[in-house]
Amino acid sequence: MNPPTEVASSFIDFLTAWSFSGSQFIIVVFLGITYLLGMLRLQIRSGWQAIPIRKMIYGIGGFAVLFFAVAGPPEAFSDEMFFAHMTQHILIAMVAAVLMLAASPMAAYLWAMPETVRVGLGPSLAERGWIRRVNAFLTNPRFALPVFILTLWGWHIPEAYALAIRNDYAHLGMHLSMFSTAILFWWPIIGPPPVRSPLSDPQRIIYLILVVTPTAVLAAIITLSNSIIYIPYLDTPHHFSLTPYEDQRIGGLLMWIPGNIVYLATLTTLFLRWFSREDRQSRRYRLTQSQIEATRRRIQELNEKNGD
User: Which domain holds residue 207?
Assistant: First the structure.
């Protein structure tokens, strides 16, 4: 981590603070370049038909968000401002993870590999292959949901959080675990290949409702606390003239409001999709019933006519 050396006093100071170093920056750049190379290789090979444009936009957008999170102002201020670190976590777990899953990046990463490796992995991606079995286990809602919640709560224990602030390896572990468990958590909602989501829309709605309360409780504890929970921020510069207590409350509010807005927006989308699907099925059923009734009347009329 490379924190700013001067006290920031304006929004420009915040936006111009970047840190192009550290292991997490290198990992994101490597994964981003690998994704782009694989995507271009697959698209050129298929005549630009393999990956829809919208999925390409999702993938590039996901890596852009990750890059901003690990190299931009959220990273530069993360060990001196609590709200900057919470912004970083929201971008990693609530935005980048969703965009990456929506991009269905598996095919791009496969095509980034040498042909021998790609062919060798083929059987493991089949329906009973070991990659599919492991993927199905890890993304099962009964596993993905509690692991995501426990990871979120675990890293916000004051001692664990302080360790991540003071130690670069712990900080990397924090972000890797948050991103990976977020991928597992969002998988049953988005359901990209090779393992489609087993949940119906009503089940996805219930699944999301189950995560709202524990995350909101954590945010409420941080926001409404009457004392400083995360002691390392007591000795850091007061950027933007914020006291450590004000900084903590802003960070908690970011977790509480923008974080839960993502859940609520997803819930609304799922509900509208479910309602629309049920409405279409209902209209098809009514149309079928009316056709059956019309046919029945026609047969009855023909029978009466023949009887005469």
Answer: 11-307
CA dist 165 and 80 (Å) reads 9
Q: What Rg value do the Cα atoms of the chain yield, rounded?
A: 25
Dihedral over Cα of 223, 225, 231, 233: its sign: positive
Q: Quote the CA–CA distance of 296 and 293 in Å, as a whole number.
A: 5
Please count the structural domains in the chain: 1
How far apart are the C-alpha atoms of 58 and 56, rounded to whole Å?
Answer: 5
Token pair of 72 as six digits: 């931009």
- Phi, psi dihedrals of residue 229, rounded to the nearest 5°: -85, -40
pLDDT tier at 273 (50, 70, 90 boundaries)? confident
Total-model pTM:
0.85
CA–CA separation, 180 vs 171, rounded Å?
14
pLDDT band, residue 146 (cuts 50/70/90): very high
CB neighbour burial string for 55-74, b if at least 16 within 10 angstroms, e if fewer: bbebbbbbbebbbbbbbbbb
**Is position 6 within any domain?**
no
> Which amino acid type is present at position 234?
L
Q: Examine residue 121 and state whether it is found in any structural domain, yes or no.
A: yes
Per-residue pLDDT reduced to its tens digit, 237-248: 888 889 999 999
Instruction: Give the DSSP letter string of 255-279.
Output: HHHHHHHHHHHHHHHHHHHHHHHHH
Domain-embedded: residue 202: yes
Q: What pLDDT does residue 294 have?
A: 67
The DSSP call for residue 85 is H
Task: Return all residues near 32 (Cβ < 8 A) that are at least 6 apart.
Answer: 63, 66, 67
Decide if 82 is inside a domain. yes
